[in-house]
Amino acid sequence: MTPTVRDVLDAAVASVGGTQRPGQVAMAEAVERAFREKKHLLVQAGTGTGKSLGYLVPSLLHGDRVVVATATLNLQHQLVERDIPALKDAARSTLDEVPHHAVLKGRSNYACLHRVREGAPDDQGVLVEVPEGTLGAEVVALREWAEHAAEDGHSGDRDSAPSHSERSWRQVSVSARECLGASRCPYATECFAERAREDAQDAQIVVTNHAMLAIDAIDGVPMLPQFDTVVVDEAHELAARVTQAATQELDPAGIERAARRARPHLDEPQTADDLSDAADSLADTLTHLQPGRIDEISQPLRAALEFVRDTARACFSAFGKESGGPGGEADPARQQARGMVDELRQVAERMARGSETDVLWLGDTRSGLQLRVAPIDVSGALRDKLFGEKTVVLTSATLTLGGTFDPVARSLGLWEDEEWIGLDVGSPFDYAKQGMLYVARHLPTPGREGLEEDQLGEITALVKAAGGRTLGLFSSRRGAERAAEYVRLALPEVEVLCQGDAQLPELARRFAADPRTCLFGTLSLWQGVDLPGDTCTLVIIDRIPFPRPDDPLMSARQRLVEKRGGNGFMQVAAHHAALLLAQGAGRLIRRADDRGVVAILDPRLVTARYGGFLAASLPGLWRTTDRATVMGALRRLDDAATARDAT
What we know:
Helices cover 47% and strands 13% of the residues. With 647 residues, it is of the alpha/beta class. The chain has a 7-stranded parallel sheet with strand order 3-4-2-5-10-1-11, sandwiched between helices. Strands 14-15-13-16-17-12-18 form a 7-stranded parallel sheet, with helices on both faces. It has a 4-stranded antiparallel sheet with strand order 6-9-8-7, sandwiched between helices. Residues 148-169 are annotated as: Disordered. Its EC number is 5.6.2.3.
């Protein structure tokens, strides 16, 4: 008899020494049904549910290829290195043959043997010698690792590479634009990226990321093997990742760099000079503009963009034919320069067009003024190109906002009149008994100037009561730094780590190693940080994380919603805030014996009309506004943790 989803799930759970969780069983059976009936499914699976096995088991049994897309490399690594191998080992007791799985990433995540063996072209199109010092040592180590990986048949994946910096990795990898292509590269038969693609062709489960899924399904660029069924994990991130993949930049320095790299390869070098002139023209135009969203493209800006577009087109046409054997001799410097110039043309053309579906804005970066363009709304593209073509399962710990799936479904292009199912399988944790949600109602509403004395005093009192053990989530880097400085002075016995003091993995390691330590930071700490136990018994959130009023993308989305007759604040700003609040509050309870407090220092959660929507998006912690009750609870938790440490 063919084993059922429950048969394989039971075997997998038993093999890892786990216990059966009703939510996991309900999820696995719902996913299997969605695959079979070809219906879209949204599954909210709280922390501790075991959602990975909840969708991997039906994917293993499906028969046809299933693509699993994640938002973060951490989850992708967990699936490929731990969850899928454990599942396959367990499945061998119930299946005659266990299907193959593969992981597929963007080309720049693999070492390039052409670059390793031939070197990397610099701005003048010559090969970069291995530099001296730490960078040089890292590059040498990476090149040796890549050669060994090629000999041993290993993946050449960056995750398995020796420790290195971003700059070092660029010396041994290429982007898709820089790649010579399998038909022209002398090392194509050994290519790590091509081998990964071939491996994926034979796999039933292909693990990838949201960006690759977006490029393949929405942009129509074939990045993945043929598939009809997809599971999107961390689905609350999907719209943001698709937007990110479709965002493009243009700045004078980049245009000048492209002109410089193109010049040695042109039949008409004058076209590179013209492109440099276009860079100067754009630079001059941008100095007369204010950073921020550009609602109407002025005539000078349009002229400057069209100048870039036209000179880039002429420069691209001036690339001569390559000499050499059949198909031409591979020249990585020429390939890279040609790709850069053509990309400039496309971006300048998109910006000059001024489409109503795009938002254009000017940013002030470390390298100077930069234009950016992004789609205002990706729901239509997702609806037409993903949901209209594939069977999609979306899952996350936070898919319901305000107590319903509708806001997230709507943002992803699933309308109420379409066939989709929302299922909340809950969490094995008893949030009301394990933790408190404290809203500091007595504090003033946070102002635009950042943390005031009242908030800083409250943070200090909470940290003192908890004996450290605090994860502080702040809406700005300045707020995190100011709070860290204040608490360090007020409580010298407590070590306070702050984002920016060191790399985030190092800070998280130090935070976990000493339970009495505090860690303060911004957005990257709100999601994906897993710190169970006494290390984190207090999570402080300084304010409701609404997007900044001057955020170009969010403000453009609010305006679009209002133009369509909706409530822009609720559908965009409140949606954004609810999602982040749920993610931030979710840092507290990570296992069944965790206890603690989430303290939100923004009274609007209980005083504003929209507070109910935000509160309904949070875990079901026991709620209070009584300061004395919370301080007492934190002291008792600290005493208990101290007693455990002593034994």
